[in-house]
Amino acid sequence: MPFVARRLPCPERAPSCGASRRETRVTGVQPSNNGVPGLHDPGPFRFLRGSFCHVRPDGAVELLPCPQRVGPDGGAFQSARESHPLVVMQVHVVGPPPRPMLLDKVHEACRLRHFSPRTEKAYVGWIRRFIRFHSRRHPREMGAPEVTAFLSALAVRGQVSASTQNQALHALVFLYLEVLGISLPDLDGIVRARQPVRLPVVLDRSEVRAVLARLTGVSWLAGMLLYGAGLRLSECLDLRVKDIDFERNVIAVRQGKGAKDRMVPLPAAVRARLAAHMEGVRAQHAQDVANGCGRIVLPGAIARKDPQAAVDWRWQFVFPAGRVCRDARWGQPTRFHLHKTAVQRAVTEAVREAGIAKRASCHTFRHSFATHLLEDGYDIRTVQELLGHASVTTTMIYTHVINRGALGVKSPADRL
Q1: 275 and 356 share one domain
Q2: When you count CB atoms within 10 A of the terminal residue's CB, does the N or C end of the chain come out lower?
Q3: Which residue is catalytic, options 123, 176, 227, 398?
Q4: Catalytic (active site) residue 398
């Protein structure tokens, strides 16, 4: 199989291998157009795809696989930087691409159906756990009995909730039907876990006030938007500058849960501090652009349609991270949004300091938002639209926890 060697700058250390770690045997090297002499048949060198090589003074090509540089005799090669720092090459296979791995097919199937990144990550995680549970057997070699055994182990030994067990079942059904194209009729006999009806944790107004009083800076702004607009934490951190409308006092939630857009109110109590915060973000963005790292990650194909949108102020995150992300998966260095754990830790600590015994989290602000609106007399359909629920049945759960008592019924014990 022919290979092409291309001149590249010398790395500081051995580069990491790519996603595919399939071993190949080099049988020949074709000279590229860079005019490097001495490229000839190097013999059967063993390497991993994505490895580096360099040409020695005698014309032989040394391949440097990662993370361990191994020669044909099993010995380690000398560092390319120590021997010939200007002739480091990267090997590219010329020929048919390797067959995609199973998890690669799962990623492709999820993205083809426009699943959310969290759904894709959850499905891949369950499929990986299913394969490891059965001693790394390929799913084609297994069927409904193995799926049943895995789900039973989750419920009996893992003691997972019903929603977690159903999520694992959906991931495996997706694997067999959509990825492998295998129908499992025996799955109809699997006992599905029943979803229990649980009431959400709700803070009263004084408790919300106490928690917010112990938040500062960006955490306070995020907490006010979570409670004042009923946002999910992911929706709050995904907000971009163009989504905040100070003139109309509204916030546009883009690609929320279920890839749905909606409009929510902008609390007047947070408007002034949010505007001042965004001025600081704008100054930071200008400095990032001057330093060459002001490009932002854009959704969909916007970066291809509008190349200048990545540095446009309107597309910047309202809550940017404190440092620049240099992960190669996102291309050039960029400043992503604030990580969710930063707000979660701040809220958890504020609840503890306030002495609240309830198991409150960031999502509790959203539950409190809906409950307090119903207590104020707002129509349940209005609350449904503000929360982005597909069915009013989901919103009706908050009628069970309003201050008027269960379903508005006054206990007869209060009349004694």
Answers
A1: yes
A2: C
A3: 398
A4: yes
pLDDT digits (tens, 9 = 90+) for 148-187: 889 888 888 888 888 898 899 999 999 999 999 988 876 6
Which of 54, 69, 232, 372 does the annotation list as catalytic?
232
* Domain span at 211: 203-291+337-410
Respond yes or no: is residue 114 known to be catalytic: no
Instruction: Specify the number of domains making up the chain.
Output: 3
DSSP conformation class of 261? -
- Give the domain-ending residue among 167, 189, 211: 189
Over residues 63-71, mean pLDDT: 42
Beta strands in 61-167 (DSSP E): 61-64, 88-93
Instruction: For residues 281 and 361, state if they share a domain.
Output: yes
Question: Is position 323 annotated as part of the catalytic site?
Answer: no
| Annotation marks residue 257 as catalytic | yes
In degrees and rounded to multiples of 5, residue 304 shows phi and psi of -80, -35
Report DSSP state, residue 30.
B
Instruction: Please tell me whether residues 261 and 354 are part of one structural domain.
Output: yes
Round to whole Å and give the CA distance between 173 and 377. 44
The pLDDT assigned to 14 comes to: 34
Q: What is the pLDDT of residues 235-271, one digit of tens each?
A: 999 999 999 999 999 999 998 888 889 999 999 999 9
Catalytic residue (one of 105, 257, 277, 400)? 257
Mean pLDDT of the chain: 76
The answer to whether residue 5 sits within a structural domain is yes
Residues 212 and 287 in one domain: yes
Domain membership flag for residue 118: yes
Known catalytic membership, residue 232: yes
Q: Residue 209: is its pLDDT beyond 90?
A: yes
Q: Which whole-number Å values give the CA distances from 357 to 90, 93, 203, 231, 282, in the listed order?
A: 59, 61, 10, 23, 40
Sign of CA pseudo-dihedral 32, 37, 40, 46: negative
Task: Verify whether residue 345 is a known catalytic residue.
Answer: no
Decide if 261 is inside a domain: yes
> Are residues 159 and 21 both part of a single domain?
no
Active-site entry in 295, 366, 367, 372:
366
Sequence-distant (≥ 6) Cβ neighbours of residue 315 within 8 angstroms = 240, 241, 242, 296, 298, 302, 309
